[in-house]
Design goal:
192 residues; mainly beta; four-stranded antiparallel beta sheet; 0% helix; globular
Length: 192
């Protein structure tokens, strides 16, 4: 059993490390402008770890949104570390079951979008848009990888659970209206 820690603010040898009962291995190098890596998620095959990052801009304001992938080999050594879709601000994500892409909640040109990002090359496609009325979060891929469920929150404080199909059409629709709980986190049943 391995544990991925993702907070460089821990200010310790365990920050951005893999711990599996042996010595911790530092996963990500120090990156200029990055203050924090957080929300680590193992890829379905256990060969990669994805993390979000935050940093500071020229005004010393915190900026969020980098999605990084670190390749991990069988000896727990770090291979390549790369940022995906560096031109958008990613706030939440979920791996596809096959590990070929991540579905992410992202800010694109001031609007909340769900994007599908290739883990091979970082290219992405827009799958759903919240426009400027609210934002997406709590993303979860279906067990077969053909859909993603999410929570959508409006700026007025209403919440709904939605689904976007991951196919050529990227069909998005609400499953509920105003679930009334800000911490709703939908999960798929085992069969989807």
């Amino acid at each position: 059993v391995s544990l991925a820690l993702g907070n460089s603010r821990l200010n310790s040898e365990f920050a951005n490390s893999i711990i599996d009962g042996t010595d911790p291995v530092r996963v990500l190098p120090d990156v200029d402008g990055i203050a924090n890596f957080y929300t680590p998620q193992w890829s379905p095959d256990g060969q990669q770890i994805a993390l979000l990052s935050s940093g500071f801009n020229n005004n010393n304001d915190v900026e969020y949104g980098g999605l990084w992938i670190a390749d991990i080999d069988s000896d727990r050594l770090i291979g390549s570390v790369r940022q995906l879709a560096s031109d958008i601000e990613i706030t939440d994500y979920t791996w596809s079951p096959d590990g070929n892409h991540v579905a992410a909640a992202a800010w694109v040109s001031g609007q909340s979008e769900i994007v599908i990002i290739s883990t091979a090359d970082g290219t992405y496609q827009m799958a759903a848009s919240a426009g400027s009325d609210g934002y997406f979060y709590h993303m979860h891929s279906s067990p077969n990888g053909n859909a993603v469920i999410y929570v959508y929150r409006t700026w007025f404080g209403t919440f709904s659970v939605g689904r976007v199909d991951i196919d050529d059409e990227f069909n998005a629709f609400n499953l509920t209206e105003d679930v009334g709980a800000s911490r709703s986190s939908p999960e798929w049943s085992q069969g989807g």
